[in-house]
Design goal:
The chain is α+β, with helices and mostly antiparallel strands. Helices cover 24% and strands 32% of the residues.
């Protein structure tokens, strides 16, 4: 897993990393970085631990599973050595809130195709949530006409 003091998004905005949690933390939004492509290629979420998700992704790459992450790392000269995972945000709250924050990070890090390997599934989450990204790190979420202020922040990152 990745360890860093900061990272930059595609717009060269810098995010500091606060290492106050570990890979055993659950209810997280995470990013997958590709060393070969030199960028974040995927953002996901898990109610389980980051470590469990890391092992699952490595297993899928090794067995050449047909999902976007695995396919990226076993094709076009890539390998498991190019795979890095980094926790972006540890959350408290509901699954829907975690999934909403995942969508915010996907937009912020531009991991939707063709820039990354996330696939847009507009009907899945955007029927209930309308996301407006503005400014450098502040986002506004509207859930059934009730606005909630949310700030994108980095809680931790780890290296293998």
């Amino acid at each position: 897993m990745m360890k860093a003091h900061y990272f930059t998004d595609p717009s060269d905005r810098k995010y500091s990393v606060r290492n106050n949690d570990d890979c055993k933390s659950s209810n997280v939004v995470y990013a997958v970085n590709c060393r070969r492509c030199r960028k974040f290629v995927y953002v996901g979420e898990t109610g389980g631990t980051l470590y469990q998700r890391h092992l699952l992704n490595l297993s899928r790459i090794r067995t050449q599973h047909s999902d976007p992450i695995a396919e990226h790392f076993y094709t076009d000269g890539h390998s498991m050595d190019d795979f890095q995972i980094m926790g972006l945000e540890k959350l408290s709250g509901s699954d829907e809130y975690r999934k909403t924050m995942e969508q915010l990070w996907k937009a912020k890090l531009r991991t939707y195709r063709p820039y990354g390997i996330n696939v847009q599934d507009l009907h899945r989450y955007f029927q209930k949530f309308y996301i407006f990204v503005h400014g450098e790190t502040t986002s506004m979420l509207a859930f059934k006409q009730r606005p909630i202020k949310a700030t994108l922040r980095i809680n931790y990152a780890y290296d293998a």
